[in-house]
Amino acid sequence: MQNIFTKTKSLTIPAKIRKSVLILDNIIYMYAGQTKDTLADVQRLH
User: Fold this and answer.
1) Could you give the residue ranges of the DSSP H alpha helices within the chain?
2) Which domain of life is it from (predicted)?
3) Rg of the chain (C-alpha set)
4) What are the pLDDT digits (tens) for 1-46?
């Protein structure tokens, strides 16, 4: 019984971590995209 519990636990935790990492990745990607656009705008202005 305990073995099954630890197996399930070890499966669900990485999934949660993976989800958080994906969300973080999306935020970083969006932020990087905005920064790139801003840099392009700045270069066009100069």
Assistant:
1) 2-45
2) Bacteria
3) 20
4) 566 666 666 667 778 888 888 888 888 888 888 887 787 888 887 6
Cα separation, 19 vs 12, in Å, equals 11
For residues 40 and 31, give the distance between their C-alpha atoms in angstroms, rounded to a whole number: 14
Does residue 46 sit in helix, strand or coil?
coil
What is the spatial distance between Cα 28 and Cα 7, in angstroms, rounded to a whole number? 32
pLDDT at 35: 81
pTM (whole model) above 0.85: no
1 three-state secondary structure: coil
Report residue 44 as tokens: 């066009």
